Amino acid sequence: MTYPNAQPAPSLDAGRLWAGGAATAVVAALIAVVGVLIAAGVFGLTLLGPPQVVGWWDTLTGNWAIFAALAALVATAILHVLLISTPRPMAFFRWIVGLATVAAVAWPFAAGIPTSGAIASAIIYAVIGIAIMSILSRIAVMAYNGG
Description:
Strand order of the largest sheet: 1-2
Helix content: over 70%
Oligomer: single chain
Number of strands: 2
Number of domains: 1
Number of helices: 4
Distance between the termini: 23 Å
Strand content: under 5%
Shape: elongated
């Protein structure tokens, strides 16, 4: 039986979503590199970097870049799952990434590093989180037809 006003089923272009996620990972990594170069390199601040992700890369800048890229890819995976499984996926996505960003911003202040370094670290984490959320939110709209 057909319905006269039936809407086509929503569809997800997973290739477009993941291509956008990969590009977002590059942007997030570059934000981290620029942030660390300015805060630590120019101003000489002590930053609270993310945990070392890759054992063979122990530079502060490289570790931030890898962590930011991985965060964007994890966010893409979460977004993908939400788009195919939940009602109002973008609301959940924004809450998840928003709360993760708030936690990352608060972390340097709880770690006991000098206040100037904590502020700089928090700003870098905030810019990375905001970029990931805003870019992937727009990509989701483009990749998800009818959602």
